[in-house]
Amino acid sequence: MPPPFEISPPDMGPWLAGNTGTPGVWQWTASEPGRRVMVSALVHGNELCGAWAVRDLLASGLRPRRGTLTVVLANLEAFARFNPQRPHVSRCVHTDMNRLWGDMPWRRDGTELASEHRRVLELQPHVEASDWLLDLHSMHEPGPPLALTGPLAHHASQAAALGLGALRVADPGHKAGVRLRDHGRFGRADAPDAFALLVECGYHGARASVAVARDALARFLDLSGVVDAPDIPADWRQPHAHGSGPLLVVTDAVTVAPHAVPAFTQPWKSGDRIAKAGTLIGWNAALPVITPYDDCVLVMPTLLHARPGATLVRFARATP
Question: Could you read off the pLDDT of 151-166 as tens digits, one per residue?
Fold first, then answer.
């Protein structure tokens, strides 16, 4: 059973309209040239840490000194449905917004468009006009914060430069669809100036996840150069945040099989290291789930929302 929620949703009332003509999207452009930077939260409606961090950003009056700053409250419909008694139900309204990006095959295959599809189309121009992207998320299960860099080396290097107190994870995403952080040139090797980072700030309901989100936001804005470090409220940074450590490179992912009711042998969490190859960690329908190599690191194992086609667990190697 998931742990209790320690945080409540922030009042986003003053910030729902946006200032761009797109609900929930705010944008400011400085007179000096610089990067076009985007910060997004609430891609999933029950991931409140990013909403709190973005609320603080909007309320602070912080404006770019250089370039453009775009702030996005992504899945407003799902967020509006948040119920503290059933906090996991409001992840989405109809479908996972973070599997709808990339070349968007659902635009051509006759899929009946749901609210998340329509919202992705609204947000697409803002995403594609950005050079740097920070996408703030949280996780179904307790575990250490993760900085998901995608598979390209230059994203992992930029993530290391942030100095987040999070495990860096290089992974290609999900079989079920493309994430926001991998959309367009954020997923292209020939776009070295583009940088996207998805930060999983901890468990959805953990109070500590809000502090992680603020810290990630502060470090991202500082490194982007759109503001100067003294512009950022000092209490957003976590003084105990440390270097990024080794990069965890995802090599394999287990997808929930059709008609499966998966199970784990124990409540695994991200960062758990399994010493021996062939160790049984769970079952996927009648198939055993075993580690593929020695010193295997588990990434985001979860049974919540473990529907057929969803990612059950990822296996990673630690690299220097």
Answer: 999 999 999 999 998 8
